[in-house]
Specification:
The chain is built from no helices and 12 strands. It has strands at about 30, 40, 45-50, 55-65, 70-75, 80-85, 90-100, 100-105, 110, 115, 125, 145. Strands 4, 5, 7, 8 and 9 form a 5-stranded antiparallel sheet that branches. A 3-stranded antiparallel sheet has the order 1-3-6, with no helix packed on it. The chain has a two-stranded parallel sheet with strand order 2-10.
Length: about 150
Amino acid sequence: MPHVLNEFGRSTSAPVTVTVTEQAGGDVFAITGLADRYQAGETIDLRFTGVTLGDGHQAYWLVRPAGETTDYYSVVGDRYTRDATVSLDGAQIKVQILAGNKVLRETGYRTLQVDGPGIGTGESITLTGIHDSCHVRDPARVPVEHRALD
């Protein structure tokens, strides 16, 4: 008579953090150049390290405004450079490496901290007509509404 030999109980172990680099001892894929805080009017100049773009690969910088759950593609390229405005205070930024529409790698989010007298606060706008699903480089016509400007 056969015996059941594969009786077992649940087994769990503590999570383990793994750091993957492109080359042994190389830089970790990360955003560099981020200051602890910016003053409105200063220049934010960010880059990424730890990855070499292959043929057909592009780096996309995504920004998630403070208090929002949706990112938007801000810049394509190896740098994110713009004036710091208080409208960016608390926003999160990350980099994705894409081949076509496929995300190959992405950094974690980093938070932008901007203080200042409201220089370049921007205007609140309302976008309508955005489809639930879009693809990079798809043309889109989107009506924009905002208060009357002084």
